[in-house]
Design brief:
With 408 residues, the chain is α/β, with parallel strands linked by helices. Helices cover 33% and strands 13% of the residues.
Length: 408
């Protein structure tokens, strides 16, 4: 259906260029079938040089222009070098009702993260106003996004993914949610903000986007701020918490108890308050659908002969569905501590984490763990590969994807 729609759109554009003699006006190049043109364009879109190649294709002939112009503007590559020209193309006039351009409706994804001082806050707001009819993915710039951009952002009703994690201005969460809560198609929200309580002591009213599936939150929240999660939609399946230093293990338990039974992915960034891994594994009973877990490894994780506790219904015979487990060991690297790999091996081979097939360790360097713990890591890698092989062809994690990986 999507291909047929694409063919019809290109055919309509070419039809508008056909002259009285039946040929495309201005074309000196033999005309290819529309299906062939669209296949070439779709293939070029997958290459690393797609932007330049699509631009060159628009210069070949009018038929090639009709096929390549929409993909060219669908996901524009924005940098400081071409930003001024991009703005002149989309916003030829400050007045929104003057000289509107058809290019603005073609833009589906706009990534302005590479811009620092190339834009202004008012210009970002103006760009959002021009792109509101078609924009689906937006990554905000660092210095040129602020409160005055929220009004224009709230009118982008087709927005599916919104990334405000690069914004340097400390936005208020409630103020931000008032602008995006009515975006009915928003599925991913990534924000760095503060918790702004009402100054008139009114009840805290937190309204999240109704179809939110993934939330990445970086905020200095504490136990008292956890009320913001009370109204989180049941559609949420992925949660990432960054830099939440004031959260303790009890806080994480409250989050899991409130809506953990919906989550499939849970990640705590390294600057989150240190958590004891055995204690967190015990709380996995509140997240029976969780398939991916990433936690900071603390000194509490280094315990020998520790029996990973779990609710009775999760055991070696009936393990938890967790498939991907990752430890962030940068804290341990700093103080020269190490994880007890034997306990992890036992939890996977004989305990309640028997469905884990991918095991990651995030270190300050890739070299360090392989030098000091080569034997233990190799044993874990072989175990995960063997378990994946036993799962058969219909396994969720294939044998070639299973094992241990080291990242920075």
């Amino acid at each position: 259906m999507e291909q047929e729609t694409q063919w019809q759109e290109v055919d309509a554009k070419i039809g508008a260029m056909v002259g009285s003699n039946g040929s495309v006006e201005g074309d000196q190049v033999p005309r290819l079938p529309i299906e062939i043109l669209c296949q070439i364009v779709n293939h070029v879109q997958l290459s690393s040089s797609a932007q330049r190649d699509l631009w060159v294709m628009t210069l070949v002939s009018r038929a090639w222009y009709a096929a390549a112009i929409t993909p060219l503007y669908m996901k524009p590559g924005i940098s400081g070098k071409n930003f001024a020209l991009f703005v002149r193309t989309l916003c030829p006039s400050i007045n929104a009702h003057i000289r509107r351009t058809s290019f603005s409706s073609m833009v589906k994804e706009l990534n302005m993260s590479k811009l620092v001082h190339d834009s202004s806050k008012s210009l970002t707001s103006r760009i959002l106003g021009r792109l509101k009819d078609g924009l689906e993915i937006f990554v905000a710039p660092q210095a040129s996004f602020a409160i005055n951009c929220l009004a224009a952002l709230s009118k982008c009703q087709h927005l599916r993914k919104l990334d405000l994690s690069y914004v340097s201005e400390n936005l208020g969460l409630l103020q931000l949610l008032r602008s995006v809560s009515k975006l009915s198609r928003l599925e991913l929200l990534s924000i760095r903000c503060k918790i702004d309580y009402p100054s008139d002591h009114q009840p805290l009213n937190v309204v999240w986007p109704p179809k939110l599936k993934a939330l990445q939150l970086s905020a200095p929240i504490n136990d008292n701020d956890l009320v913001i999660f009370k109204t989180i939609p049941k559609s949420l399946i992925s949660l990432t918490l960054h830099h939440c230093l004031k959260l303790n293990s009890g806080s994480i338990k409250r989050i899991l108890v409130d809506f953990g039974h919906f989550l499939e992915s849970l990640r705590f960034e390294p600057r989150t308050s240190s958590l004891a891994f055995p204690e967190l594994v015990h709380w996995l009973k509140y997240a029976p659908r969780l398939r991916r877990l990433s936690i900071p490894a603390s000194s509490d994780s280094v315990r020998t002969n520790y029996d990973f506790p779990m609710e009775v219904r999760f055991s070696a015979e009936n393990p938890h569905p967790l498939e991907h487990l990752e430890f962030d060991c940068t804290y341990l690297d700093r103080y020269g501590s190490e994880l007890d790999y034997e306990d992890i091996w036992l939890a996977i081979a004989e305990g309640s984490l028997g469905r884990v097939r991918r095991l990651g360790f995030r270190h300050q360097t890739n070299v360090q763990p392989w030098r000091t713990n080569r034997r233990e890591l190799q044993e874990l890698h072989d175990l995960l590969r063997a378990l994946a092989r036993e799962d058969g062809e219909n396994a969720r994690v294939k044998e070639e994807d299973a094992g241990v990986y080291i990242c920075t």
